[in-house]
Amino acid sequence: MGSKDRKLALALLGILAVDLAIATYALFKGPFPVKVTLGTPLAYRNIYLHVPIAVSTYAVLGGALVSSLLYLLRGDPRYTRYADAFVKVGLLYGAATLATGSAWASESWGTPWNWDPKETAVLLLFLAYLLYFPLKNSISDPEKRAQVAASYAIASYAMVPMSFLASRVLESLHPTTQAIGQFTGGGAGGALLGPRILLLMTWGILLALALARGGLRLPRALPLVIALLGVVLGLIAAVPLLQGGYERVVGVETDAEGRIMLLEFSSGGKADFNPPAENPISPPLTREGESTLLGHLVRVEGDVIRVLPHWSTPFTYIVYTLLLSTGLLLATHSARKGEETR
Predict the structure, then answer these.
(1) How crowded is residue 306: how many other Cβ atoms within 10 Å of its Cβ?
(2) Which contacts (CB < 8 Å, 24+ apart) does range 20-24 have?
(3) 165 CB contacts (<8 Å, ≥6 apart)?
(4) DSSP one-letter code for 46
(5) CB atoms within 10 A of CB 264
(6) How many other C-beta atoms can be found within 10 angstroms of the C-beta atom of residue 213?
(7) How many alpha carbons fall within 13 Å on the CB side of residue 163?
(8) Residues 25, 26, 31, CA angle at the centre, nearest 5°?
(9) DSSP β-bridge partners for residue 253
(10) 107, 39 in Cβ contact below 8 A?
């Protein structure tokens, strides 16, 4: 492995380690809103996991656009390889975006698929790029194949601004940029979200560059280790849910300090507390004086209230680690394939 490839491999692994650490912290400790209109507030930890994948998809596909433009302008076949690599990574990110978005939607919107404008636009974006390789492989003449593929990649990029703007120009269930900014801006939420977007975006671009250069020689067990790590940590985060016996809070009576006197559940059941139980959420009350326990999934154990996560967050974390492991698998497979053809 040459000096440049070694540096590229080290950069990929370094970014992966830092981003994985931040994502893991977000999974278990990420800040969440004190009040939401749909679903449980803890499901909003998906912001730190789903949103970086979605934004990075746009950036990676932007690499395919630039590479295709450079090919048409300069005719250098090297840019065709770069365009192919960016499309591959973009499809990987796009599939993860759809899977994680559907998981979050199942909680906040009541069903995994709602034909929401942004959902639909992202699906169309994914399908457009999914046709890139079948179209390219259907053309036998190498020069014509490269020209058609480049033109198609450029045309397909029109779906990126369309999907980005869909929730802004049409009525959408997606949180607005302003709403996300109010939650994450200027605090711990922003300190997690901003770096995650930058790191995952950079990792995807470097991965595409590595694929275009013929892949990287990495430890063969590394993709499997990362995938297993993601599954194990995701299951650990989901253990409270797997134990069962939890309810969704739809009504709360509190004392003046925000301690819980009565809980009403979506199942129709109730739980009384005498003396009042401590609210495990801080602060215990919103600015409007409502209990911050509303909407949460909880398990009542005697006089103790335990708040549980929603399954979509551990699921999204597992999908994220599978994205990383699949990307590394592609890089190592390309390197081995290149060695076999020499």
Answers:
(1) 15
(2) 20/226, 20/229, 20/321, 20/324, 22/48, 22/192, 22/195, 22/196, 22/199, 23/48, 23/49, 23/196, 23/317, 23/320, 24/233, 24/317
(3) none
(4) G
(5) 17
(6) 20
(7) 24
(8) 120
(9) 262
(10) yes
CA atoms within a 13 Å half-sphere pointing along the CA-CB vector of 295: 20
- Structure-block tokens of residue 99: 């899977």
Within 10 Å of residue 98's Cβ, how many Cβ atoms?
Answer: 21
- Measured CA to CA, the distance from residue 249 to residue 291 in angstroms comes to 10
Alpha helices per DSSP H over the chain = 3-29, 47-74, 78-108, 117-130, 132-137, 142-156, 159-169, 177-184, 188-212, 222-242, 312-340
pTM of the model: 0.92
Whether the predicted pLDDT of 186 surpasses 60: no
Looking at residue 88, the DSSP 8-state letter turns out to be H
Mean pLDDT of the chain: 90
What is the pLDDT, as a whole number, of residue 225? 96
CA 194 to the chain's CA centroid: 13
Amino acid letter at 20?
A: L
Half-sphere exposure of 338 (CA within 13 A, CB side): 15
- Non-local (6+) Cβ contacts of 143 within 8 A are none
